[in-house]
Amino acid sequence: MYKFALIFALLTASTGGTAIAEEIRPADTHFFHETFGDLTEELELAREEGKFGVMVMFEANDCPWCERMMKNIMNRVSVQDYYREHFQIILINVDGDTLITDFEGNEVQEKDFALTHNRIRATPTFLFFDITGNLATRFTGTTKNIEEFMWLGEFVVDEHYKEEKFIRYKRNRRQSG
Predict the structure, then answer these.
(1) 91: containing domain
(2) What CATH number has the domain bearing residue 50?
(3) Which H/E stretch holds residue 154?
(4) Domain-located, residue 20
(5) What predicted TM-score, i.e. pTM, was given to this entire model?
């Protein structure tokens, strides 16, 4: 796989276009939590650690959009730190045969959990489950950039999804600068 290395990437800051250096790490080892595929256990960990809940990213084999998210957005240390602080983060393959335990304690294959239980039709899809295991919100596709992915996290953590759609939240964030 990857060897851990300190790599710096140039980013354009959202305010003023100033170039800043940010450390990056592989998303597969630093964004997602290690899991045994038991979502009830992941939910319990989230509760114990005072997190919002569980975020599940559904990916597909050879999905270029999933790869784009992992190599350009979820590899940033600031993104990894924020999301890991607020969510247990699980990666599920929509083509996978691996058995997982869903939030109700039932064993199902990854692909059945994706298609049958959550109607995942495109990847990547991000589902955010609250601390009780109920679906808070879903986001299908890629975000435009790092800032937008961070806004998605804030949208969920600060419970804006209860009052408005993410598209409106993004528009308001852009306007407030």
Answers:
(1) 26-176
(2) 3.40.30.10
(3) helix 146-157
(4) no
(5) 0.86
Tell me the C-alpha distance between 68 and 139, whole Å.
16
Residue 126 exposure: Cα atoms within 13 Å on the Cβ side: 25
Residue 11 lies in a domain: no
The answer to whether the beta carbons of residues 70 and 62 sit under 8 Å apart is no
Residue type, 126: F
> Helix or strand or coil: residue 55?
strand
Domain-located, residue 12 = no
Domain count, the chain: 1
What's the rounded Cα separation, in Å, for the pair 169 and 151?
A: 8
In a domain, 168, yes or no: yes
* 53-59 and 125-130 beta bridge pairing: antiparallel
Strands 87-93 and 53-59: parallel
The string of DSSP codes covering 76-136 is BHHHHHHHHHHEEEEEEETT---EEE-TTS-EEEHHHIIIIIH---SSSEEEEEETTS-EE
Model confidence over 34-81: pLDDT tens digits? 999 999 999 999 999 999 999 999 999 999 999 999 999 999 999 999
